[in-house]
Design brief:
Layout lengths: L4 E4 L5 H11 L6 H9 L3 E7 L2 E11 L2 E9 L8 H15 L4 E7 L3 H10 L2 E11 L4 E10 L1 H6 L5
Parallel strand pairs: 4-5
Antiparallel strand pairs: 1-2, 2-3, 3-4, 5-7, 6-7
Bound molecules: coenzyme A.
Length: 159
């Protein structure tokens, strides 16, 4: 697997990010969602290999919590370990800013993402009934968290 180069997402990147977002998700974010995140100062990262955009992430910091709002790998490159690398980068970012926890919501049906989170050490914290729109009605969201308290005190990287 090629190493990933990490850069900041800019407004000019949104078209290519949105293209991947639509390919990878049944209910994609809108371009406006990405623009709002950039305008709000959320941390937004692009991950590239050999100058090809492989994926991206969007992270919001609320006090000492880091909320992972979006993580995505372009479908052609899924299953090659890139998602795990991107998640590892987000955890490093959270540790650097001395966050105590990384939290995220994931669709109850998104077993692939849940497997990634569980195998990285995330725990299920609660279930939000009907949190997401679905093809038929609504779908539950699973709130998951990874506590970093000890790691950030020690200044260690998790991975
Ligand atoms: C979720 C996502 C980011 C994972 O990225 P990825 O590059 O495919 O994942 P990786 O190759 O790093 O695999 C990480 C783990 O995911 C799980 N996984 C990957 N492919 C899987 C599959 N086909 N079935 C089940 N689990 C799978 C495994 O646990 C894997 O770990 P392992 O290879 O050590 O067993 C990616 O599938 C994606 O972008 N999905 C669409 C957007 C999305 O659902 N984002 C998450 C929203 S909460």
């Amino acid at each position: 697997m090629t190493e990933l180069a990490v850069t900041q997402m800019q407004l000019a990147d949104i078209d290519k990010v949105f293209h991947i977002e639509k390919l990878a998700n049944r209910f994609p974010w809108t371009k406006g969602n990405f623009e709002d995140c950039l305008k709000s100062g959320y941390r937004t990262f692009l991950y590239s290999a050999d100058d090809e955009l492989i994926g991206y992430s969007v992270v919001q910091s609320v006090l000492d919590e880091v909320h992972l709002l979006n993580i995505c790998v372009t479908p052609a490159h899924q299953g090659n370990g890139y998602g795990r690398k991107i998640l590892s980068h987000i955890i490093d970012v959270a540790v650097e800013q001395s966050a105590v926890i990384v939290v995220l919501e994931v669709r109850a049906s998104n077993f692939r993402a849940q497997q990634l989170y569980l195998s990285t050490g995330f725990n299920e914290m609660s279930v939000r009934r009907g949190y997401y729109p679905a093809e038929q009605g609504r779908e539950d969201g699973v709130l998951m968290g990874l506590e970093l308290g000890m790691l950030s005190q020690l200044g260690q990287s998790l991975l």
